Known about the structure:
By secondary structure, the chain is mainly alpha-helical. Helices cover 59% and strands 0% of the residues. Helix 9 runs antiparallel to helix 11. It is globular.
Amino acid sequence: MYRIKIYRKGDFEMNIREIIEEKENKIIVTNGIISSKSMGRDRKEPLDENRTCFMVDRDRIIHSKSFRRLKHKTQVFIKTFGDHYRTRLTHTLEVSQISRTIGKGIGLNEDLIEAIALGHDIGHVAFAHNGEQVLNELLPNGFKHNENSIRVLKMLENQGKGLNLTKEVLDGILYHSGFQNKKMKAATLEGQVVKFSDKIAYVNHDIDDSIRAGILSENELPKDCLEILGFTSGERIGTLVKDCIYTTLSNLKNNKIEVELSKNIEDALVKLRKFMFTNIYNGEKLKVEREKAQFVLEQVFAYFVKNPNELPLIYRKIAEREGLYQGVADYISGMSDDYCLWIFNEKYVPKLTVY
């Protein structure tokens, strides 16, 4: 028989969180973030006995309603009925997996990386970037999903109280976007890892989904990019992950505190990403479906602008405090594709009347 020793709180000189933090001091590289040295939260709260601050943040994001709604938000393909197409949720999980692999290889704080990765797209609108484009045109101050993610996590979740996340997590989420804007980067190496992982994930899984949907074939992909990165999704992700780890480790060795890809690898990724924007994201093949989605969102937005009394209470209060357009935008940005379509049908589509 196996002997199982039961540990009790009094058996340890430190609690579980402190033991984890002590391990972090030994395994995280000099420029990584140690949980015990976090910049903290906007509202101070007692430390958790079993989890570091970044573990707490990860769990709060996972248990949030906004996170659960990602499963019904489009990644690229609108209203696909196949089981194997990515959604915004599965994209988020792939980003988390890639970024944790890179972070562990470099020697960074994996819990911080995971929290940032899981929350990075939580402010995305229904119908992929089409929804973001609609709200950006309708709102006086524009709309960006990364900024909206911060708004959701700080002001909308938890019945308007927010999740009170650490500043490092919020910073990483805010600066995960803008791949080719070198000045727009997270303050932490962990946040920078998520930014690269986001692009590594979506470029490759969107190629996979596009081929599955029959709107792209492998021989259409830029051959010079494939010769550098790999001819399969797994090969490309492996090349990019390995290159990011070794390039960043070399940077740190030479006192350059920055996550990077080597030039030829990054150039290939940028070219492949540009190909996807030209041919898939903004291409003719999905134009009709994009226009349908934009029309639906525009009509739903217009309806609640005309009927603000039908907004849920939390959004009516925002409308009173920050303006009607902001209240409507907050409501719509949280909608899943299915819920947005249900609202559209409920408000605009005639119903069968039986006498």
